[in-house]
């Protein structure tokens, strides 16, 4: 049976020239409406101020005609996710986020519900990292140890959010993002890496994967040179491993 998974994976909640989530308003609203969703659970685990973070997101999305509730306000996170139709996982520290997802027994639960189409997923930054095969290509510092780097696995490749392919200061002689991704790709366990530029959105629609938003992406793999993709590109071939 074909996959029914539905997800929107954002490089970030912020994009230059836009207010918070404004660049993704049309995509998120359409995504929720098409799936008959009015209530959205926000998961603030990538930061420590759960109330403040949830309020910031709620103040934006509620104005679009939806209702956002923080997962931390439910006494039993597993039950809340089991009964939910839609979740949004925000950005922050990816290691902290994944540790908390494992601690609350949510990783496999989310994967199962997303795979069978009973839960739709929106992720941003760290929330996008944990939607992939693993968090090996996050930009975040490992401030805490999750029990595994393996993530939810909505897509079978890795993502590098906030991807930038040039050094802003030409005097900088340190590693570039490309070099760090290349080091990962030398590992036996490495998966392809999609660098999402700021403002990029991946729409997972069953067996289809379309690049949306206001900016493009770059694909890295061991077998090919890096490839540039513009908004509107069909990246469904990346889902072949599912």
What would your notes on this structure say?
The protein is of the alpha/beta class and 242 residues long. The protein has one domain (6-239): Class I glutamine amidotransferase (GATase) domain (Rossmann fold). Helix content is 25%, strand content 20%. The chain has 7 helices and 11 strands. The protein has helices at residues 25-34, 50-61, 77-83, 94-103, 107-115, 126-129, 177-185, and strands at 6-10, 39-43, 67-70, 86-89, 120-124, 158-160, 193-196, 200-205, 208-213, 217-220, 227-229. A 7-stranded mixed beta sheet has the order 3-2-4-5-1-8-9, sandwiched between helices. The protein has a 4-stranded mixed beta sheet with strand order 6-7-10-11. Strand 2, helix 2 (50-61) and strand 3 (67-70) form a beta-alpha-beta unit. The longest helix has 12 residues, at 50-61. The model has no long low-confidence stretch (mean pLDDT 95). One of its GO terms (biological process) is proteolysis. Its EC number is 3.4.13.21. It is found in: Cytoplasm. It catalyses: Dipeptidase E catalyzes the hydrolysis of dipeptides Asp-|-Xaa. It does not act on peptides with N-terminal Glu, Asn or Gln, nor does it cleave isoaspartyl peptides. One of its GO terms (molecular function) is dipeptidase activity.
Oligomer: single chain
Q: N-to-C SSE series?
A: EHEHEHEHHEHEHEEEEE
Number of separate strands: 11
Residue share in helices? Answer: 25-40%
Q: Domain count, please report it.
A: 1
How big is the Rg? 17 Å
The strand line-up of the biggest sheet is 3-2-4-5-1-8-9
Uncertain stretches of 5 or more adjacent residues: none
CATH names the topology as Rossmann fold
Largest sheet: 7 strands, mixed
CATH class: Alpha Beta
Number of helices: 7
CATH architecture: 3-Layer(aba) Sandwich
Please report which band the strand proportion falls in: under 5%, 5-15%, 15-25%, 25-35%, 35-45% or over 45%.
15-25%
Mean pLDDT: 95
CATH level-four homologous superfamily name: Class I glutamine amidotransferase (GATase) domain
Q: What is the approximate shape? A: globular
Q: Compute the separation of the termini in Å.
A: 12 Å
Judged by helices, strands and strand pairing, the structural class is: alpha/beta
Function: Hydrolyzes dipeptides containing N-terminal aspartate residues.
GO molecular function, one term: dipeptidase activity
Subcellular location: Cytoplasm
Keywords: Cytoplasm, Dipeptidase, Hydrolase, Protease, Serine protease
């Amino acid at each position: 049976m074909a996959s029914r998974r539905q997800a929107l994976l954002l490089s970030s909640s912020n994009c230059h020239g836009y207010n918070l989530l404004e660049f993704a308003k049309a995509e998120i609203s359409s995504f929720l409406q098409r799936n008959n969703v009015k209530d959205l659970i926000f998961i603030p685990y990538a930061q420590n101020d759960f109330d403040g973070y949830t309020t910031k997101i709620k103040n934006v999305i509620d104005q679009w005609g939806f209702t956002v509730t923080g997962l931390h306000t439910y006494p039993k996170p597993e039950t809340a996710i089991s009964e939910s139709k839609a979740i949004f996982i925000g950005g922050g520290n990816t290691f902290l986020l994944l540790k908390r997802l494992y601690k609350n027994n949510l990783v496999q639960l989310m994967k199962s519900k997303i795979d069978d189409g009973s839960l739709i997923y929106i992720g941003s930054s760290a929330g996008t990292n944990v939607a992939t095969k693993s968090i090996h290509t996050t930009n975040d510092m490992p401030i805490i140890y999750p029990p595994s780097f393996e993530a939810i696995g909505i897509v079978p490749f890795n993502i590098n959010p906030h991807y930038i392919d040039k050094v802003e200061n030409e005097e900088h002689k340190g590693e570039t993002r490309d070099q760090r991704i290349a080091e990962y790709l030398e590992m036996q366990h490495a998966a392809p890496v999609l660098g999402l530029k700021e403002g990029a959105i991946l729409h997972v629609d069953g067996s289809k994967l379309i690049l949306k938003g206001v900016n493009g992406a770059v694909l890295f793999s061991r077998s090919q040179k890096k490839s540039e993709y513009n908004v509107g590109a069909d990246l469904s071939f990346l889902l072949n491993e599912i």
